[in-house]
Design goal:
103 residues; mainly alpha; rod-shaped
């Protein structure tokens, strides 16, 4: 009786560990796609800002480019969070419009 109980508790513990590991693996893949999308949007935003700058007037001052990668929480906070990986979760609507504007 006692050995059978220990056996089933061990099976339950292993099953819980497997489920948690599978969720972390799945979340890591989703995080990769989300962060890749953010990096791509940030790159396109920076290129648009650089191309909009008028260099013909001799104005070679630094262009103000917001680095949206610094707004996102750390890897561990993203991985172990239950928040959905959407732009609306981590950015304001104005920041999303600025990132997504196409010209």
């Amino acid at each position: 009786m006692e050995k059978e109980l220990i056996f089933w508790l061990l099976i339950a513990f292993c099953l819980c560990g497997f489920i948690i590991s599978f969720y972390i693996l799945w979340r890591n893949g989703r995080m990769h796609s989300f962060l890749h999308n953010i990096n791509d949007l940030n790159y396109k935003y920076a290129v648009r800002r650089i191309n909009e700058h008028d260099y013909s007037k001799g104005d070679f001052d630094a262009i103000k480019i917001t680095d949206y990668n610094n707004i996102i929480p750390s890897y561990n906070r993203l991985l172990f969070s239950f928040k959905p990986l959407r732009l609306e979760t981590y950015f304001t609507q104005d920041e999303i419009n600025e990132l997504l504007e196409e010209k």
